[in-house]
UniProtKB/TrEMBL annotation:
Organism (species): Virgibacillus sediminis
Name of the protein this chain belongs to: VOC family protein
Xref: CDD domains: VOC_BsCatE_like_C
Keywords, in A-Z order: Metal-binding
Domain VOC: 10-126, 169-283
InterPro entries in the cross-refs: Glyas_Bleomycin-R_OHBP_Dase (IPR029068), Glyas_Fos-R_dOase_dom (IPR004360), Glyoxalase_1_CS (IPR018146), VOC_core (IPR037523)
PROSITE patterns listed in its UniProt record: GLYOXALASE_I_1 (PS00934), VOC (PS51819)
Taxonomy, superkingdom: Bacteria
């Protein structure tokens, strides 16, 4: 999975807000297949390998339900190591009676479902990059039906569900934003991403290192959509891994050149995109 290691810049972790931490923990353990790495009365860090957290949950004080027609999380996407892993989770979800959507994106095969608070989760596998079709710097993606008959030929007979495999990582994040012009400037000129697909006039897909996308942004909640309240269900922040301290310094300079600051908050280097989505920058 070289698209999620140095020297690329990639999303490594997402922190989401939930209404009821215990309810969410039950869901993320029993349905999605995470383990708990650390837990307090209002927060939990989730893991698949027992060492690294790729998803955190927090229950804010005076939390309110997810607010519609706002900016913030569209979905976060868990990337599985092997096709059999996706096939196995399909069987697991069906056995538990969990409803889910699906799609063949040409570059990947994906499932979609929602947690108890309405936060959307994508679970996917990549096709081999040799199968991706590029034209003038843009990668072809689609929203085609997923071929379940072909996928389920990869299930392992008699192999009981054991949760998410150890090699699961945060593959990408997709965000609702209020507009695309300044958003593109922020992610391209500020953070150093390339636009690798334009989905009409309403969505952009961005990456480094010729991945199909590390970040997606869209205006499907409406141009001018407001930022949600701080205490509402949704995304608290996501983490970008940059390849070096030099890259961090260069990124801070690039952000300043477009009028955006990166500031230290409780020991974390934080910036915000034009729609108020909070991003932590780390090496």
């Amino acid at each position: 999975m070289g698209f999620h290691s140095k020297p690329t810049t990639f999303v490594s972790h997402v922190n989401i807000k939930v209404e009821d931490l215990q309810r969410s923990l039950q869901y993320y353990q029993e349905v999605i297949g995470f383990d708990i790495l650390e837990k307090t009365s209002s927060t939990a860090k989730l893991t698949t390998d027992g060492k690294t957290s790729i998803l955190s949950l927090e229950q804010p004080e005076n939390v309110i339900p997810k607010q519609g027609r706002t900016t913030g999380l569209y979905h976060f996407a868990l990337l599985l190591p092997e096709k059999r892993d996706l096939a196995n989770i399909v069987v697991h979800l069906v056995n538990k009676g969990i409803r889910f959507g699906s799609s063949d994106h040409l570059v990947s095969e994906a499932l979609y479902l929602h947690d108890p608070d309405g936060n959307e989760i994508e679970i996917y596998i990549d096709r081999d990059p040799s199968e991706w079709k590029w034209n003038e710097g843009e990668v072809a993606m689609a929203v085609d039906p997923l071929d379940f008959d072909r996928l389920l030929k990869n299930t392992e007979p008699g192999n009981a569900w054991k949760g998410l495999p150890e090699g699961t990582i945060m593959g990408h994040i997709h965000l609702h934003v209020s507009e695309l012009i300044k958003t593109e400037e922020f992610y391209v000129k500020g953070l150093g991403f390339d636009v690798v697909n334009r989905f009409g006039a309403q969505a952009l897909f961005l990456s480094t290192g010729k991945y199909h996308h590390h970040i997606g942004v869209n205006t499907w909640n409406g141009v001018g959509a407001p930022k949600p309240p701080e205490n509402s269900v949704g995304m608290e922040s996501f983490t970008l891994i940059l390849p070096s301290e030099e890259a961090i310094k260069e990124t801070i300079d690039n952000l300043q050149n477009i009028g955006v600051s990166a500031t230290e908050e409780a020991g974390r280097l934080i910036t915000y995109d034009p729609s108020g989505n909070r991003i932590e920058l780390v090496v």
